[in-house]
Each structure stands twice: as C-alpha cells, then as structure tokens.
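Support request, priority: normal
Reporter: lab tech (M.K.)
Component: structure prediction queue

Hi team, I submitted a job for Putative membrane protein DUF2157 from Kribbella antiqua yesterday, and the status page still shows it as pending. I've pasted the exact input below so you can check whether something in the sequence is tripping the parser. The sequence length should be 698 residues. Please let me know if I need to resubmit or if it's stuck on your end.
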Amino acid sequence: MPTATVTCPTCNTTLQLTVEAMPPVYPAPPPRGFPTPPVYQPPPPPPIYQPPVPQPVAARATPPRTPVFSAQRPLPPPPQPVKQVKQTTHHRRLSPQATLLSLGVLLLLAAGVTFLAVTWDSLPVPVQAGIIGTLAALAFAGSIPASRGKLAGTAEALAILGCGLLTVDLYGARALGLVDPNAIDGLTYSAIVFGSVALVNLLMTRLAPKVVTYGVTTVIAGQLPLPLVLIDRTSVPVLLLALLAQVVATVFLSSKGTAIVRRTGIITSTVVFCGILVAGVARVFAGLLTKYSFDYRDLTGDVFTDAVLRSVVFTAAVVCFAALVGIVLLRKVSVSRGVGEAVCAIAAGLAVATCLPQLPGPGRWLTTGVATALAITEILLRFRRTAAILHAAAITVASVNLLVCVALEDARQLGFMAAILAVLAIFAALRKAVHEVPAAAVAGMSAQVAIVVFTLDDFISLWAGAISIALVGACCIGLACRYVGAPLERILIGSAASAVLLAEIVALMVSADTGTGVVLTIAAAPLVAYGMMPDRRPALLLAGLFLIIANTAFVLAAGGTAIEWYTVPPAVVMIAIGVLAWRDQSSWVFLGPGLLIGLVPSTLIADGNDSWIRVTFVVAAALAVVVLGAQLGLQAPFVVGAAVLAKVGIWQFLEVAPLIPRWITLGAAGAVLLAVGATYERRLSQAKQAARWLSALR
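Reply from support: The job had stalled in the queue. We restarted it manually and it finished. Here are the results:
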C-alpha cells in the first residue's frame, strides 16, 4: 500500500500519509464476448488532513486497484409545489346589448302597429305605404353606420326591422288596394315581394357586408320567386329542372360569402333539392297508380294518356339528372356525402323503377334488366367509390320491381327475377364480392324458388319442374364433395335436401311411382360420390336407400310381378356400396346384406314345379358365390351360397322322395349310417378341420 511523507507548511511537522484502496462501486465486469466498457477516472481528491502522530496501517495482500473516494453529493433541493391555475368555464350568457336591442325592435314594431291601428283610417293609402317604407329605409340606412362602428348587435336588429317593415309594406299595399288584386294574381305578387326583398338585401350586403341578416335573407328569400312564378304556368318537369338550376346557382353563389351565408346556402339548397326529388318521385308514382289501378283515379286526378306518359318519362329523367347533379355537388362541397349520395341513388332508383312499368310493351322486363345491369356493375366495381351508389340504386330498383310484380301477380316475372338472383349470387362469389356461404345459400334457394314459380305458372311442365329441382339438388351435393369439412358444405347439403324434398313433392303431383324413381335416382348418383369421402361413408347408405326405393317405384310403375325385380337390383346396389366403402371389414358387413337380399327371397320360393328357370339361376348364382368365397377367403359368400344350395337340394329331394320306393330310402339311410360309423373318427376330424377352415374365413 503506498505511503508518502508530507511536511505541514504551518507547523513544519512531518506527517505519514497512507492511501488505502477501496473496493470498486461500479458493477462487475461484463462476461466474455462483450466489449469492456471504458473506465472513467475521478478527479484527484483534495489532501486529507491527518493528526500529528499517525498510525500506519499494515499492508494487505491485495492487488493494487484504482483508488475511489465515496464523496457524497449534496441532495437536490426539493421540488417547489406548482400552483394549479383553476380553470374557469365560461358559460355563454345572453348579452345585455342583444336583450336591449331585441326589446327595442319589438317596442318599435309595437309602436308602429299601434300608431297605424289608431290613425290608419284617417291617412290615405299612399301615405300609409310611404310611412312604412320610410321606416324600413331608415332601418336599412341605420344598419350601415352601426356595422361600420362595430355595433354588430344594433346593425343586426336594424336589419331585421327593415326586412320586416319592407315585407309588411309590400303585402299591405296590395291588401289595401294600392295594387289592384285583379291585375296580378297572388302567387305572382308573392314572387315579386320576395324577389324585391332578396334584391334589397343583396344591395345591403354590398353596403354593410358585416351584417349577417342581409346575406341570410338574400339566400332564403331568393329561393321563393322562381317556384311561385312557375308553379301554375308550366309542367312538373320544367318546374323541377328550373329549381335544380336554382339550387346549383345558390350553392355556387353562397360559396363566395361568409361562413354563415355558405351554411345557409347549403341548408336551403338541401331543402329545395330534397323537394325536387320527392316531388319528382311522387309524380312518377302517381302515374303508375293511374295506369294500373282505378281505385286511385280520384287521388291522382288523371286518366292515363300519352301526354301523361310523356310527363312521367320527362319527370323521371329530370329526377335522374338531379340525382347525378346532387352527387357531383356533394363531391365538390366539403360535407358528409355518404348519406347524400345514397339518397340521390335511392331517388333515381325509385324514379326509374316506377317509370319503366308504365312504358308500353316490355316495361317490367326493362326494370328487371336495369336492376341486373346495376348489380353486375356493382360487382365489377366493388372496390371503387361508386360501388355504394350502385348498391343503393340496385337494391331500390330490384325492391320496387319485386313489389310491382307481386301487386300485379306476374309470376313469370318473379320466376325470372329469382333465377337472375341465383346467377348473380354465383357471379358475386366467383368475383369475391361476397362471402361464399351466404352466396351459396341464396343461389340454391333462389334457383329452387324460380323453378317452383315457373311450374306453378305453367311455364314448364310438372315433369320438367321435378327433374330441374332434382338436378339443382344433385349439383349442390356434387359441389359439397369439394368442400368437405368447410362451412360451405352444410349450406350445400341443406340446399340439396330441400331441393330433393321439393322435387319429390312436384313429382307426386304428376306420377307417384315413376316420378319418385326418377327424382331419387338423380339424387342418389352424386350421393355415391359424396359418400366416397372417408368421413362421409354414411352417405352411401342413404344413396343405397334412395336407389332401392327408386327401383321399387319403377317396378310398381311397370307392373312387375316377379320378386327378383324387387330384390336383385337392391342387392346389387348394396353389394356395390359395401365393396366401395367397407371392403376392409368382415365379409358379413359389406357382402352379407346384399347376398341375403338377393338370394334368400328367390331361394324360398324356388321349386321344381313351375319355376325351373328360377331354380336354375338361383343354383348358378349360389354356386358362383360359393366358389368366389372359397377363392377369396370370404365367409359370407361361402356360407350363404352353401345354405342356398343345401335348401334347393333338400327341397328337390323332398319333392321326388314320394316317387322313390321305400326300400331304396331305407337302404340308403342304412348305408350312410354304416359308412359314418365305420369312419367316425376320421369324419369327426374332417368336420373339425372344416369348421376351423370356415371360421378362419373373413
């Protein structure tokens, strides 16, 4: 341990200074494989004061290390508490200035009305109109310096007062005879009044642009003159087209004003635009009621003529054009356009769907074609912005077309609509526009509904309907083979089950036996392929049952009496199903049922009197089965065939036994007993060996 001698500069005393190494306070060195962090040396400490007689410290047997001094740093000052500023919520209250101005305007109006009520009769009409006009002009004029002098409330109050007095003055002039009522009708005069108010307020917006009342009044009052002038002078399509032009002009002009003017323009344009759509759709729908129903003639007030048809067509065209303009305006104006575009599409769809059935000839067919075209376009453009508009229009046209066909009891049109829906569902699933599960359900059910409706409408015969529905079920089962274990499989199997049931019901209407056989045979064919799947083996049993029932129905229809018509085909079906599905099981499982059904009934009725042909075929079949069982090591064919041969042989012997002399019978029996008794041990051993061989068969 290092030791140094130091002389005190004050008292000249010799001091012994020993520096002792302290253990390091930094963490242990990192493991191998990692770079060693740099070691930073602390600054040299100040000299340490020692007493005059130091005591040396013995050296330790430790390696020298870098001296480290644990000088405690001063603690930081405690944080000062932060003064929380209490946030005050400012509640909007009614301004005293606004209250005073409103009361002042009301008092002025009350004073004017009181003055006119008291002294009106003593004044001539021009003087009366002049007084009110002068007051209105003074109010308008007073709002100009008020708005420039930062008296916004006063300016707004004077503007409202001026607009009210001007409107009262104009209407009062006509009511009191200053304007002849016979010279101009009420609607036209109202248009003049609102036009004058709009023009005056437009002029005031130039003189006092900060007054909100003038801009809002200009926008609102400017909407009224055009409909008031055209409402009884032109047709509905022209009126709607003029209002549409007014809406476009309002949106364009109001967009150049202040925020409140722009907002007012959007609101008024929306109201007028919705009125255009509602009025146009109502006019087209009234034409539809006029054409197809006599119960609403009093309501519509029209008789369906060529002029009415032209008006309806032009109105529908204007509604469609207005919807297109509305969609364009919505995309130009920064407002929520999802709902607006849907409303425009629905209005256009309603106009088209109610207009096309009124056309002579294939009117409703055109509606169906338009709905189909919209649906196809929507599927093709599913990822674009216009897909939502097409979706709303397609649903609207299809729904209205459906309601019209139901109301008119047009079953054939409904059938074609269902068939088109099935095709569109398949097309949408192939294009990945919809999920395959609902698409498959809609396609299967729509196809069945279409065929049933065509059958009920006598568009196709009952035979064609039953076979068509059965083919739909067969197609569903065939498609289910590709989706085993998927959610789509259950939908397809369910559609197939309903199709087979409907086909059987239709078949029972035309032929209970032959129709049943045809339907079940068509359904059983794909079931065999479906049952070949390892997890769907029970479907083979259902297919076999269908084939057996179909065979029985065919035999009954043909009037067959031989029992083999009822047993041999089912036996062949069961043997084929067993070989396909369960050939790795015991032969009694996959061959036993078919062999028993095919051979036992014929064996029981086989005799030698009048059915020698049956006996011959039964013996041949049993012999072939026995040989096959022995060659392949199958127990069921060998046992069944041997039993059949034994029964036939014993029965034949019993039939000829009465013809044999008794001594021959007794002698043969005695010879057999002697032979068995003489070779009993060997015969017993052979019997046991045969039993073991038979039990070893599969």
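The first strand starts at residue 3 and ends at 7. The two ends are 99 Å apart (CA to CA). Let us know if anything else looks off. Ticket resolved.
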